[in-house]
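User: what does the whole thing look like in 3D?
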Amino acid sequence: MASFWEYANPLKFMRTSDWLLPIVAVAAVVVTTTGLIWGFFFTPDDFRQGSTVKIVFLHVPAAMMAINIWVMMLVASLVWLIRRHHVSALAAKAAAPIGLVMTLIGLITGAVWGQPMWGTWWAWDPRLTSFLILFLFYLGYIALWAAIDDPDTGADLTAVLCLVGSVFAVLSRYAAIFWNQGLHQGASLSVAPGTRMDWAYKAPLYTCMVGFGLVFVALLLAGTRTEIRARRMKALVARERMA
Amino acid sequence: MIALLTRDLRLALRAGGGFGLGLAFFLILAVLVPLGVGPEPATLALIAPGILWVGALLACLLSLDRIFALDFEDGSLDLLATAPVPLEAVVTIKALAHWLTTGLPLVLISPVLGLLLFLPAEAYLWLILSLLLGTPALSVIGTFGAALTVGLKRGGLLMSLLVLPLYIPTLVFGAEVVSRGAQGLAVNTPLALLAGITAGAVALLPFASAHVLRINLR
Amino acid sequence: MLTVRGLACARGGLPLLEGVSFALETGRALVLRGPNGCGKTTLLRTVAGLQPALAGEISAAPDSIAYAAHADGIKGTLSVRENLAFWAAIYGTRGIEMALEQMNLRALEDRAAQNLSAGQKRRLGLARLIVTGRPVWVLDEPTVSLDVASVALFGAVVRAHLEKGGMALIATHIDLGLPEAEVLDLSPYKARLPDLGAGGFDEAFL
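Assistant: Here's the predicted 3D structure for the full assembly of 667 residues, as structure tokens:
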């Protein structure tokens, strides 16, 4: 039985992702399109919200992935700090822009949904606020990577930032909940889709969630491959200079 | 350790140390806000807690890059890292010096600025107390940000981007203490949470700061 | 006593030197030479403990190394005495007076360091080394920007340090006026590039 850590070897990772990436990519496209078409065109309209509710099929999976990707980056950062596998650090680097876009999709679809439902594009609801803060954390993380030349130093510093940032992101989440209650006396707007959801909605929603997960994995594999190649290119250029 | 503290204080207070810049910034902000918002006392009183806290936070941010940048440029940081003192202690002392030269003066001047912004009388005690409890966290978190960006050219702007999101919990609870105090509500919960964040940050962040500083020096 | 065995070190993730071995006996000085960029500074920073070694070992008595780089950590707005007193407090030593005497800084002790000439600043940097009270001096280009007289003074200070049982590891490419020092040329220790062929990717990655 081969150890899981073997995939931390860049060569092994490149070989495996070479055949894995097309499969995941095709699966991602198929599952996501199925889920979205199913959700948009083959579900009944909600008796209160009409067909606006169907944006949930984009909104919820994106928001879910936005958080999951940060958790994945946290795990990858820990793996880098403890075991120093380069692939892990580069995977965290590749995941960040995907997470940023997912957060942005969540925020924008939320605004589009909120406009007809609540009559406003934006409300300082704890959930919305937390997502905006998460967006800022992604920005900072990506900016730090971009600012550092030495790849190992960049990996180390961003990993520590990811750890510390995670703690503060959780704190910010509680602060946002607390702060909103303080202003609105608990009369908060909830983004949570309906109290009880029919299977007619649940099934396509779960399909979309799986689809978004696959899209992330496909993009992550492609991104990590790019980062590994960029890293190797840097190493080769440095060799040229040394020789 | 005391030697490092007195040295840092002395450097901050002597010419070119930049002491007082944060204070001046805080004052200017308290002047600009009424000019922008209008002189209506009721409006100003309503937003005063938030303005004072955001002002304190930005004033703190202004002087963060001096914590390590000067010592990095003249090589003192290399020498301190090889000296027989733990880097965690160096980082803590640096944060303390930053607080004494920036945070504490902000706390002391804040009642005057509260006056300018028509802060309700009941809130003064809570303003001072919340800033006194919260500004140490601002210094410690800021020291972490400064340590992260110490070797970088044009690190100042990046540092703001990294540090400001980390300031959010402190800001929320700090401003909440003051605005609840102004409305005569109970402030125990936000005050306890603010103190908790400060205690946690002071206890744990120096280790992270020292770690990233070592990475940046290698 | 400072012993270095099979040391390899890297800068920016690239191996620069490998297999460097030397031993520094009490009372001796070792001068490291080599062209610019060959890794002198990196080697010294590794010995001083500022960065980890790729391979090999460095053995020295605990708390025996005092490191001095190009920049000597002098604060312009502090006086000469304040600068030295700070480092004495950090290293837990006393003896600023002796350092002031030895480096001929007595007359300047109350002057702000920013008003010193380049040579005087270097002397202050050396006084800082004396103040640390450490036996092993690790010096990076200590005589840069010094005139002939100051280089001679530097030589005398190092010699006095060696006579008292000290050691010095110095990287430089100019003459220090220390004829008794051993010289180690670092050029032969240049790290070989890892093979691209065999295991390839992972190794060439670094």
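In plain terms: Helices of chain A lie at 10-41, 56-83, 86-118, 126-147, 151-184, 199-242. The mean pLDDT of chain A is 85.
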